Amino acid sequence: MVKAKKFVLRKHPEGLPKSTDFKLVEEELPPLKENEVLTEAVFLSVDPYMRAYMSTLSLDTTMIGSQVAKIIESRNPKYPVGKYIVGQFGWRTHTITDGASAAGSGPLIVLPDLGDLPLSLGLGVLGMPGNTAYFGFLEICLPKVGETVVVSGAAGAVGSHVGQIAKIKGCKVIGIAGTDEKGKWLTKELGFDHFINYKTQNVGEELKKVAPEGVHCYFDNVGGEISITVMNQMKMYGRVAVCGAISSYNEKETPKVTSPFRPIIFQQLKVEGLYVTRWNDRWMEGINQNLQWIKQGKLKYHETVTEGFQNIFNAFVDMMNGGNTGKAIVKV
Ligand SMILES: NC(=O)C1=CN([C@@H]2O[C@H](COP(=O)(O)OP(=O)(O)OC[C@H]3O[C@@H](n4cnc5c(N)ncnc54)[C@H](OP(=O)(O)O)[C@@H]3O)[C@@H](O)[C@H]2O)C=CC1
Ligand SMILES: CCCCCC(=O)/C=C/[C@H]1[C@H](O)CC(=O)[C@@H]1CCCCCCC(=O)O
């Protein structure tokens, strides 16, 4: 008999979540039925969407999230023992699944052979955030050689990846993030052309200095005033990919921000929201392209790893507070 540990939602958080909003419980798992497999979590992902979805979850349900898990028992020939899969199993150590429980998060993936690369990449650059960057940027921003691209949330999982694809496509890239260390990583390691620290600099003034030509594409991970400021400096027919709005996820009330309609109308911007599951039917195309770019040395990644399943809440809050560079991961 296997005992799973899991975090359930005890209270809907107000503002930044507190550890007391969650409860660690144990659950005895039954024997497997035909077609089912038993998995053991190896790496868990902490992502901003978790905060946005928390308020919609019923109390006492397992906190949502994806993980890389090892199949440790199987009654399903499609999922043999020893293979690693990426599944939307939540904040839990052990899971029984029949393979059909990948709700909301892209298909249940048996990880391809990653060679020397860490399996945790299946939650980042070779997983949902990587595909968000790949499809969201290329399909919505439609970048062209020589164009100027701005990325907010630039040092995170999605943003750091978008900026590098923009460089691969021959663009000038400006990243906006919250610390100078992140800025150094973006410009010195990843090849971003410029960095703006939104906490210590005036984004509008700095942007005028580094992109006097105007911005062709904006990949928006944060929303709020940063995004309005960037949109006000966009070129005619600029393209905006609205990927996330982390600046508002902890807010109780929908924040009041400056209206974006002036630049949208006068600059005739194309503003499009995206949800990466739109490209579920092309999922492996994104994974394979990103893997190829890593092997070619064109795409770099960084992970901020927290050790211990019991520390997943701390890892989540740390990520929401900007403690991560690249992808935030928990190693069980
Ligand atoms: N639409 C879709 O399908 C998907 C959307 N997303 C969205 O993409 C965005 C990035 O996700 P992901 O790469 O996983 O997360 P990140 O790895 O970027 O981590 C979150 C980062 O957000 C930054 N941040 C926190 N608060 C604020 C704020 N008030 N203003 C500006 N930046 C802030 C912090 O960096 P800093 O130090 O710079 O403040 C933090 O490190 C999120 O909005 C997420 O919801 C992600 C995946 C799929
Ligand atoms: C206002 C909220 C915006 C959130 C944007 C975001 O980060 C979306 C991320 C999703 C991505 O498109 C695919 C995912 O895996 C993320 C959401 C997954 C939610 C699964 C919920 C399913 C469940 O209830 O178990």
Bound molecules: NADPH dihydro-nicotinamide-adenine-dinucleotide phosphate, ligand LYYGC724
Tally of contiguous helical segments: 9
Estimate the helix proportion, in percent.
Answer: 25-40%
CA-CA gap between termini:
20 Å
Family: Belongs to the NADP-dependent oxidoreductase L4BD family.
Subcellular location: Cytoplasm
Protein name: Prostaglandin reductase 1
Keywords: Acetylation, Cytoplasm, Fatty acid metabolism, Hydroxylation, Lipid metabolism, NADP, Oxidoreductase, Phosphoprotein, Prostaglandin metabolism
Question: Can you walk me through this structure?
Answer:
The protein is of the alpha/beta class. It folds into two domains: 2-124 and 302-331, Medium-chain alcohol dehydrogenases, catalytic domain (Quinone Oxidoreductase, Chain A, domain 1, Alpha-Beta Complex), CATH 3.90.180.10; 128-277, NAD(P)-binding Rossmann-like Domain (Rossmann fold). 26% of the residues lie in helices and 26% in strands. It contains nine helices and 15 strands. It has helices spanning 49-54, 128-141, 157-168, 180-189, 203-210, 224-231, 261-266, 283-295, 312-320, and strands spanning 2-9, 22-29, 37-45, 67-74, 84-87, 94-97, 109-110, 148-152, 172-177, 194-197, 215-220, 234-242, 270-273, 303-307, 327-331. Strands 3, 4, 5, 6, 7, 14 and 15 form a seven-stranded mixed sheet that branches. α2 (128-141) packs across α3 and α2 packs across α8. It starts with a strand and ends with a strand. The mean pLDDT is 96. The ligand CCCCCC(=O)/C=C/[C@H]1[C@H](O)CC(=O)[C@@H]1CCCCCCC(=O)O binds next to α1. This is Prostaglandin reductase 1. Residues 15-330 form the Enoyl reductase (ER) domain.
